[in-house]
Amino acid sequence: MQKNQVRKAVIPVAGFGTRLFPATKVVKKELFPIIDRDGRAKPVILAIIEEAISAGIAEVGIVVQPDDKEIFENLLKNPPKKELLEKLSPQNQEYSQYLEDLGSKITILLQEEQLGYGHAVFCAKDWVQNEPFLLMLGDHIYASDIEKSCASQVLDVYEQVNQNVVGLTTMPAEIIHKAGCITGVWQELNSILSVTQLYEKPTIEYAKQHLRVEGMAENDFLGIFGLYLLTPKIFDFLAEHINQNFRERGEFQLTSCLEKLRQEEGMTGYVVKGKCFDTGLPDAYRQTMIDFRNF
């Protein structure tokens, strides 16, 4: 195996989906439907898995709450009952088989306690083992502006630079308090940069003082896109925070560990040629339903 070959992707989906309550009391937000370009209704998680597979990922680990394991197994591992399968159109019967084939590449991982996003990522440590891996958010779907998928673009940059990569997108100042934000020095203008700081949900004042990027408009910043290519060293920093009970906003977070990873190994930022669609907020989900199919 080549040193830089990436085989695995991790998708944490163990959150409570509080921002979409009460719908998430009965349906996991990762199972909310979207309509794809072919007009097929599919759960959000399926679009994310397909994004990973499109990039050549061979195995996908999904981090779930124990109570939700059966739901995801029913989607990805178990065929429909015979009487339902017979009612499906020939195209959907074929798609059912496709889902089973896809399911053979999926491993269900458990987060026994919901202790934050960083903790959910840490739950994939033993499965990932000592390999670089693609990390994807469980409530974001992606649409590329070019022939290569968004995930493929990030993997290509990793192969080029052979260090941690964080996917980026331009964000206006008024929304950066909702996202991770980075600054750095351009290696290729408006495309690739060396990351010099990551910061979670900055205020506009902090961003204007510390997170400006040369050549960008005054009210534009680089926000995290929702795709990361990480070395297994990230698990050391996550373990350190968990063992020391170092929590931020009551939970174990990822971004502060990414900053430590950057300091130790270096990190490249890549402005993804594409759009990230958020399905984790009511208005954003509604807009995704409108825009995703036609993007």
From TrEMBL:
Short name of one Pfam family: NTP_transferase
Gene3D superfamilies given in the database record: Spore Coat Polysaccharide Biosynthesis Protein SpsA, Chain A
Biological process annotations from GO: UDP-alpha-D-glucose metabolic process
Keyword match Transferase: yes
Name of protein: UTP--glucose-1-phosphate uridylyltransferase
InterPro entries: GalU_uridylyltTrfase_bac/arc, NTP_transferase_dom, Nucleotide-diphossugar_trans
Alphabetically ordered keywords of this record: Nucleotidyltransferase, Transferase
Residue intervals of the Nucleotidyl transferase domain: 8-289
